[in-house]
Write a structure and sequence with these properties.
Blueprint (H helix, E strand, L loop, with lengths): L1 H39 L3 H8 L2 H16 L4 H19 L5 H10 L1 H18 L5 H9 L1 H20 L1 H7 L1 H10 L25 H6 L2 H31 L4 H14 L1 H16 L5 H21 L6 H28 L6 H17 L1 H20 L7 H4 L3 H8 L2 H17 L2 H22 L2
Helix pairs in contact: 1-2, 1-4, 1-6, 1-7, 1-8, 1-10, 1-12, 2-18, 3-5, 3-6, 3-17, 4-5, 4-6, 4-9, 4-10, 6-17, 7-14, 7-16, 8-9, 8-13, 12-13, 12-16, 12-17, 12-18, 12-20, 12-21, 13-16, 14-15, 14-16, 15-16, 15-21, 18-20
Length: 450
């Protein structure tokens, strides 16, 4: 038992490291994007398109890889995915124009497509239901740690050596993670469940089974809304600090590191602990914790955006508190997906969830926010009497345009809280239905073997 527990925690820390590098590599563009935009004279819409390019590849390969994770060795899928996305991140530094960088960033989609379904499925088989919230919070700690390291390292490197060097820096750690995951013990399907269902699943199409669960439909919608906000912040927080608050690239990235990166650690850990504690007493406990956390983040984000230009400390504290509450979402929702889905469908469930989360959320968040920023930038210029909207003429008005666009985030946060509350109303019935099937399936298997 002790050996199995040690193996589970070794696997979890390896998965944490992979997730950290996943978000480190993906966040580099958010950290150095302002330098890229100025070098190539791009608008915020174009930068948003670069920030979400990886979701296009994810849309093509995410769901098939999720199904593959339900049938094949998950650690091999992870190792191959980490290796490929690390090489393509390094290649991004060699881009000489917008379209070359766009193509290289497409390849980063392999990260999410291979990482989330396989890693979540492994965690579901390594840890029992009562501890999954905590295990998921450790895995998802890779998000704020990776983001924080990316902001810190990329900002310093970009200031000293240029933005291309920031992409080169990220390659080696990813390759080491690709090797480390090969030493993880692959658990049997359903190894941590109370009922021994193994790799069996309910009859019917795997996609229909997942989408036929009411809680999953609400969670899929919540993922799209949440990722819109998280990727909008990740793409434009540093540019916002540089334009509206007058910070240089290094200082802006350090503030972003704290507000959007390090703030996630307490949100994930405390959110996971609270979710597990309340779930032990109420079936809807995890989602109620998530609902309350998102709801409380909305006024904090509004107050942060309302700080006057130059007041970066107040902005950092308020934005950091709001982001910490937003991170609690992951601990609550990812564990709930495991609770309402049988072991042999968890890769598929996560793939479908991530399909919507990234195609409808991450792809629209930076791009949509960038387009809105461009629109309000043009309006501010027109109001000031500027008639020729060249990149140089619009530059003085980009701070006002982006500031207005950022208010999309708390507005969608309020809608997200309503969606999570709706999911909390269906989760008890869906969990009981699954447990009843697993209990009956296990009993039938025992009878067949006697």
């Amino acid at each position: 038992m002790e050996e199995r527990r040690a193996g589970a925690w070794f696997a979890l820390w390896v998965l944490f490291a992979i997730n950290a590098m996943n978000f480190f590599d993906r966040q580099i563009l958010g950290a150095v994007g302002e330098a890229v935009r100025k070098e190539w004279s791009l608008g915020d819409g174009a930068m948003g398109a670069l920030g979400t390019a990886f979701t296009l590849l994810y849309a093509a390969v995410g769901v098939p890889l999720g199904r593959l994770a339900d049938k094949s060795g998950r650690k091999w899928i992870l190792s191959a995915g980490v290796f490929v996305w690390s090489l393509l991140t390094v290649a991004s530094g060699s881009a000489r124009n917008f379209w070359q960088l766009f193509v290289f960033r497409l390849g980063v989609g392999v990260g999410e497509a291979s990482c989330a379904p396989s890693a979540s499925s492994l965690i579901g088989d390594l840890f029992p239901p009562k501890g999954r919230g905590r295990a998921m919070s450790v895995f998802m700690l890779g998000l704020p740690v990776g983001v924080a390291l990316s902001f810190a390292a990329s900002g310093v490197v970009a200031r000293a050596y240029g933005w291309r060097a920031a992409f080169y820096l990220a390659g080696l750690p990813g390759l080491l993670c690709a090797l480390a995951v090969l030493f993880v013990r692959e658990p049997a399907r359903g190894a941590s469940e109370a009922h021994g269902v193994g790799a069996r699943r309910r009859e019917g199409s795997p996609y229909r089974l997942v989408l036929g669960t009411p809680t999953m439909r609400w969670l899929i919608l919540s993922g799209a809304l949440h990722n819109f906000n998280m990727y909008a912040i990740g793409s434009f927080l540093t540019p916002f600090l540089m334009r509206y608050h007058g910070s240089d690239i290094r200082s802006a990235n350090l503030v972003s590191m704290v507000a959007y990166g390090l703030s996630g650690a307490p949100g994930l850990v405390l959110g996971g602990m609270a979710a597990d504690a309340l779930a032990a007493r109420h079936a809807d406990g995890r989602l109620l914790v998530g609902t309350l956390a998102i709801l409380c983040s909305v006024p904090l984000l509004l107050l942060a955006l309302g700080r006057p230009g130059g007041e970066t400390v107040g902005f950092m504290l308020l934005m950091g508190a709001g982001c910490a509450l937003m991170y609690a979402y992951y601990s609550c929702v990812y564990a709930t997906i495991q609770d309402v889905t049988e072991p042999s469908l968890r890769g598929t469930a996560m793939a479908l969830y991530f399909f919507a989360m990234y195609v409808l959320g991450a792809s629209l968040g930076p791009y949509g926010t960038g387009l809105v920023s461009d629109i309000f930038t043009a309006r501010a210029a027109a109001a000031a009497g500027v008639t020729l909207h060249t990149p140089q003429a619009l530059e003085p008005f980009r701070a006002a345009g982006l500031h207005t666009a950022m208010y999309l985030i708390p507005c969608l946060g309020a809608l997200l809280a309503l969606v999570l509350f709706a999911a909390s109303r269906t989760v008890a019935q869906d969990t009981e239905r699954l447990q009843r099937w697993m209990r009956d399936s296990s009993a039938e298997s025992e009878v067949a073997h006697t």
